[in-house]
Design brief:
The chain is an alpha+beta fold. The chain has helices at residues 3-13, 42-51, 82-88; strands spanning 18-21, 56-59, 68-72, 93-100, 103-108. The chain is built from three helices and five strands, in the order αβαββαββ.
Length: 109
């Protein structure tokens, strides 16, 4: 079982709806509706990753999962407001992570 397949199952076990993304990408695979096809059905998730083990994992955020993500790039205007976002969402924020030198992701629930 690939690491991505295991991650998909782990997210599924947490009740987070997942959907299929292009391998090594952020785009839903062709012929799908992206987050509108998100599922927590373990049998379906296993089938997806058995058919194509290199799929990337997409998480449906919002009401379906109960968490929200702001993905801000420092070279964009939105990054200038992240400190304000951190202060204004402090009571809701579970985790703030910097995942790359050029990006910050603020995850709230």
């Amino acid at each position: 079982m690939s690491n991505l397949h295991q991650a998909a199952l782990d997210y599924n076990d947490m009740g987070w709806p997942i959907f299929r993304l292009q391998p090594k990408g952020k785009t839903p695979i062709g012929g799908t509706r992206g987050r509108d096809d998100a599922s927590t059905d373990t049998i379906l998730v296993n089938r997806w990753w058995t058919e194509l083990p290199t799929l990337n994992v997409g998480l449906a955020t919002g009401d379906e999962s109960g968490f929200f993500v702001l993905d801000a790039d420092p070279d964009k205007v939105a990054m200038n407001h992240c400190d304000g976002c951190n202060r204004s969402t402090a009571r809701y924020r579970k985790r703030v992570s910097r995942s790359a030198a050029r990006a910050a992701r603020i995850i709230t629930s």
